[in-house]
Amino acid sequence: MLWQTVRLAVQAIFRNALRSILTVLGVVIGVAAVIAMVTVGQGSTEQVTSDVAKLGTNLLMVRPGQAQQGPQPGNPASAFNLRDVEAIATQLASVRAAAPADTRTMTVILGDQNHATQVVGTDSAYLTARDIPVVLGRSFYESELRSGAAVCLLGQTVRKELFGSGDPLGQSFRIKSISCRVIGVMAEQGVSTFGTDQDDFVLIPIRTFQRRIAGNADVTMIYVSVRDGVDTGVAKSQIESLLRERRHIGPGEEDDFNVFDMKQVATILTGITAVLTGLLSAVAAVSLLVGGIGIMNIMLVSVTERTREIGIRLAIGAQEGQVLLQFLVEAIVLSLLGGLLGILLGLGLAAIAAALMKIPFSPNPLVILLAFGFSAAVGVVFGYFPARRAARLDPIEALRHQ
C-alpha cells in the first residue's frame, strides 16, 4: 500500500516536472547553503588551530608593556634583557625552552637581488620554542652566539627570493652593512590564517643583532615553550611571579609586561569562527523555511487542480487517510529530492571554497544528516495542511468541480 502511494506521488511529480523543480529549488538552496557554510566554517576553524599550532607547542609569548590597546600611560615599560631569558629558562622547571627575540624589517641584498623581510635576532632555543626544524644545514653554534658571529638561518621565502633553487649554504648576502653567511634553511611553515607569510624571515644571533643592528642590549620578546604535560596557565603564573620579582614590581602594582598564551588565542579565534558560522548558517536556514512555504503553495495548487480526481477516488471507496497519505508523500518526496540535491550542491560549493581559500575540506556527517532530516521535516510540516484539505473534500462537491 505504501509503495503504491509512493509510486503515485512520483508519477504526479513527474507529470509537472518543471513546476516540481522550481518548487524544490528553495529547499535545494537552503540545504546547500547550510552545508556549505558549516563545512567552510569547520575548515576555517581547523586552519586557525593548525596555524596557531605552527607557532609552537604550548607556546607563551612575553612582551614588555601592559596588555592593552592605545598608548601606555606614564613611562614606557623597559625592555627585557638576556639575563631575564636565562632566568626563565633555568629557574622554572615547567619551561622547555626560552628564546629571546628582537625584530626589524630590513632589506637583504645579494648581487642585483634585494628583498624586504623580517630580520630576527635570537638563539637556537627559538627553533625549539617555535617547533621549526632546520631542513638544510645546521643551527647556531654556541660559540657563534657568544661571539656575535655574522651567520644566519633563512626562511624558505627568503631562500627562494635570493637563491632560487640553488644551494645557499656557505654563501653570503648583505643585511645593512653586515655580510651574513648562510649556515641553514628552516622548514616551510606556509601562510597563516591572517594571510602573512610565515617563511619570510631571517634568523641571526641575538648579540649580532644587538651590536650591529639595534645598537642596544634590549630583548623585546621572549618565546617560552612549556614542557609536555604542564598546564600553560601554571607556567604563565610562574613566569609572571619571576618577572615581577626581577623587575621589582611591588604588591598591588600592575605588571609592566604581559604574557600571551597561544592556547587562549586559539580558543578566541575558533570561538569567533564558530559564532560567525552559526550566524551564517542560521541565515541560510531561512531559505529552507521559504522552500517549505513554496512546497505548501504548490501542493495547494495541486489539490485545486486535482479536485475532480480526488472526488472520484473518494466516490469509489478511497479512505480519507489514503488521500491524505498520497498528498503528504508527494510533499515529502519533493522535499527529500531537494535535500539530496542540496547536499550534493552544498558539498560541491564547500569543496570549491576550501580550494580557493586554501583551508581543509571538512564535511560533517552529522550536519549533513541533520540537513537531510530537516528537509524531510519541511515536507511533513508544510505538506500536511494541503494533504488534509484534499482528504476532507466532499466527494459530491469534488465531482461537480470543473
Order of helices and strands: HHEHEEHEHEHEEEHEHEHHHHH
Cα Rg: 33 Å
Structural class: alpha+beta
Form type: elongated
The total tally of domains equals: 2
Distance between the termini: 29 Å
| Helical amount | 55-70%
**Beta-strand percentage?**
15-25%
Low-confidence stretches: 69-74
Main sheet? 6 strands, mixed, barrel
Please tally the helical runs, counting DSSP H or I stretches of 4 or more residues. 13
Average pLDDT for all residues? 82
Per-chain topology:
Blueprint: H1 2-15, H2 17-54, E1 59-64, H3 82-91, E2 95-110, E3 113-122, H4 125-129, E4 134-137, H5 142-147, E5 151-154, H6 156-163, E6 172-175, E7 178-186, E8 201-205, H7 206-214, E9 221-226, H8 232-246, E10 257-261, H9 262-305, H10 307-315, H11 320-357, H12 365-391, H13 395-400
Parallel strand pairs: 3-8, 5-7
Antiparallel strand pairs: 1-9, 1-10, 2-3, 2-6, 2-9, 4-7, 5-8, 6-7
Helix pairs in contact: 1-11, 2-9, 2-11, 2-12, 9-11, 9-12, 11-12
Could you explain how this protein is built, in words?
By secondary structure, the protein is an alpha+beta fold. Helices cover 57% and strands 17% of the residues. It contains 13 helices and ten strands. Strands 2-3-8-5-7-6 form a six-stranded mixed beta barrel. Helix 2 (17-54) runs antiparallel to helix 9 and helix 2 runs parallel beside helix 11. Mean pLDDT is 82; it is low at 69-74.
Q: Which descriptors would you attach to this protein?
A:
2 domains; 13 helices; 10 strands; six-stranded mixed beta barrel; 57% helix; 402 residues; alpha+beta
